[in-house]
What we know:
A hairpin with a 2-residue loop joins strand 20 and strand 21 (335-339). The radius of gyration is 31 Å and the shape is globular. It is 34% helix and 27% strand. It is an alpha+beta fold. It has 20 helices and 35 strands. The structure holds one RNA strand.
Amino acid sequence: MSAPLSAPNVSITLPDGKTMTFARGVTGAEIAAAIGPGLAKAALAVEVDGLEWDIFRPIEADARLRIITRKDAQALEMIRHDTAHVLAMAVQELYPGTQVTIGPAIEDGFYYDFARNEPFTPEDLPKIEAKMREIVKADLPTHREVWPREKAIAHFRDMGEQYKAELIESIPQGEDVSIYFHGDWHDLCRGPHFASTGKIGEAFKLTKIAGAYWRGDAKNAQLQRIYGTAWRDQKELDAHLLKLEEQEKRDHRRLGRDLELFTFSPDVGAGLPLWMPNGMVIRQELEFLALQEERKEGYRRVATPHIAKEALYYRSRHLPYYNEGMYSPLDIDGENYYLRPMNCPHHHLIFGATRHSYREMPIRIAEYGQDYRYEASGGLSGLMRVRGFCMNDAHIYCRYDQAKEEFIRVLRLHARYYDLFGIKEYYMRLSLPDMNKLDKYVDEPDKWVAALEIIKAAMNESGYRYVEGKGEAAFYGPKIDFMIRSAIGTEYTISTNQLDFLATETFNLKYIGEDGSEHPVYVIHRAPLGTHERFTAFLIEHFAGAFPVWLSPIQARVIPITDKVNDYAQKVLNALFEAPVVNGTAGLRVDIDTANERMQKKIRDAQLQKIPYMLVVGEREAAEGKVAVRIRSGKDLGTMPLETFVARIRQEAETRQDVAD
RNA sequence: GCCGGAGUAGCGUAGUGGUAGCGCAACCCCUUGGUAAGGGGUAGGUCGAGAGUUCGAUUCUCUCCUCCGGCACCA
Length: 661
């Protein structure tokens, strides 16, 4: 054991503020021993100059140390990684012959991938978890050994751990590898790990079983993955589980059913949504919004067919580059027709149908276009990922010198929409080609670079922050994607803004310049409201089904207290129907509940349907020409003249802005 | 597409080798009630589809469809 020495190179600040120093080569475990049993118990690890470090690795550099205790944020990732190890230990003990592969810490928890012929079943999870708790209780000590690469390969191969051996083989020759032991069980691992299995604590839970490909490649064998969640204490774990429950309540699939927004039928087909009357309201209001905003921006609307002949998709390069995403062709009189996966080719044909002067550029062609894509069956999810959808599409044909400014204008349109909906939880991704998979992208290096420069300049000038995503580009050019997360945590592209250098060639899209000759164009593909399907799915979750008044399928419900006031209630309803609304689908969407039920029951029903306004009318209101207004938060706004309420709800519908209460 | 799980009335669910219950919703009756479920009754199911095993299948087997959790895919 190293006590403090005379040539101190390593110093540590204890939780009480005191400093201790040690010689180089000391390990965190030795430091823990030196600082006394009380602290050693609290210490889960040590941190060196802000980097995570390993309690078993000799500290060679001059360094300032800090003890990591359970309370520290750094402890969390280590807990999760250690718990993954304990999971692997438990599984190998319970199911001999199971091979281990990898098991990292992830957001909220960890997983471990196993190779085993028999599938794990949901009933296995409690057994594995019980075994894990035994291993934690046993508090098995950890130690670290460094082996030469070749020894490690031979060792794991002898054990029958083919996957581990393969992993080590991918480490460069001549390098040593570290092996971590927890008791007798050991694994190739970079570390760091705690001093013993007992440090993990009790706040973990196995959550699900899944299939996963070895090394993330569908060509490889499929492994069995066990997921778990792990936290620093029970309180954190409980809070996490509660959060998951709350998120589930926002799931658009559940709310879509409860609020009768959309449905699916096996008789129609997977991924082909049926919009119900309530959902259609949202869809139409979104389209009205787009129509208004796009008119202000100089877009002109078109309408084009949902199918086209094979030749069009060869020309557009969809068949060479995007064939897998398209439905099989329809044979019509011996000729192949395809359901269109995108609207671009049709729009290009419209642009190409007439000659364009440089003076009239840019040309902005818009359509809420219905498309069909043969998405992988396993990827379908409610309205978030479908096979038939309607896109808020437009193509902007512009001169090269206009591209940057047009791109920025589209970004600003995005921003206006997002502000309107109060969407804040998103990020922008600059989607780039993957240089290792060049066959997925058209081979025009100079044009890729030029297009990228325009987008980057547009992003810098507009000041929007973004991340880069390799391998996310379209085959015809780079793009900015707007990324959101669904209630169950899956990430989706909700909107997109793309720059296309290819279409000018494939569709011979040109304008006549000042010099009288033809010049190429850039095409901006943009869908700030994405598809009706995905955008509505997102809005359902964003608002948890409680839409602002302008989007609410039913904006107000009249609730007569007794059938004696049904006539007056009907008068209230008619007044609302007749109130003019400038925006949207014109007129308010209201109904009346004349069921033979008590008012309390009717209020409850309206509340569950998340209707913004309940207008309770009884004999008092009828006598005074008033309505008693209750909002869905439960708040009672009191009695007000009918005209006062009409003015309020009209204002909300027209401004697309609810009055704060 | 791949691995695993699941489909019983509009929704949520119970159950069985001898063709099915319950709650909510729907409909009817009583009740005329002042801000989150009044009481009673009625109707509603080829138990996802097809085939096989069996005297007999919703139940067991197979195929398909659809959904769920992941993985892969997502121009």
